[in-house]
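Handoff note, outgoing to incoming analyst
You'll be picking up this chain. Sequence as last confirmed:
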Amino acid sequence: MPISPFGPHLPAFAGIPTFMRQPASRELAGVDAAIVGVPFDGGTTSFRGGTRFGPRKIRELSLIMWGYNHHHQVAPLEMLKLRDYGDVDVSPVDIQAAHQAIETEVGAVLAQGPTVIALGGDHSISLPLLRAHAAHHGPLALVQFDSHCDTSDRLYDHGTPFRHAVQEGLVDRDAYIQVGIRGPGDHAAERDYARDLGARVLTIEQAFEIGVPRVVETIREMVAGRKVYVTLDIDAVDPAYAPGTGTPEVGGFTSFQMLQLVRGLAGLNLAGFDLVEVSPAYDHGDITAILAANLAFEFLSLLAVKKNRSEP
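Most recent structure output, in case you need it:
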């Protein structure tokens, strides 16, 4: 009998690089979670592109991970039925057409039942992802790990998705928190734009002053009792730990602190996730993609914890 190309017995350098070697399929009946790649970087306007190659590289580096999460004491691949859906077919040069494709296709995935873990791509993709999720769940609490507010008063690019999301009623203004905001800005009122939209802006200085455990408590207090969408821009992490991104900002979280923050979301009513802005061309030794793959695994682990707690 032939050996499956998706088998976990294969070494990391062999086989087909779906996410953690899970089957590639668009048959989603009974599936708990789906990995969906969104290889779009046409919304990149601030500095460096290349995040269209992020989903493929994250999948590749996911092959080095084992399946047991010691922190949460769960084996998500044993507890969840996971499929790698593949990538949304997006136009690289037409942001409106790309966003429509993302919203439509992810909406169809959600309608079949799985929780979506989306791999970007630039941060503009969070807008159509939130449109699809809000159409399915209603307005969502939003946890945004980022170095930038991404609430600029412009049209559509990777610096504007959350202004549009709030204005379109996709986000619960009373349950929106940004974590890790830092760096110089365009003008003095830049962070006020986010606050005017209802966001609790937790800067990196504040996060370091109160410490990771208190940051986690603050997030949980903000979103308690609501359905929660989590968006993680890899530039929330210091470029010493995640250099492979388009607009790096110094003075960010370490890779371990980022793991702690995501792990702290366990038990929340999590509706969806995206992980964006991994640009492999600017990476060194794949350390950014390795971190991104591990963070996606942590997202899966949160779903396993949620399922475990819901079972009698």
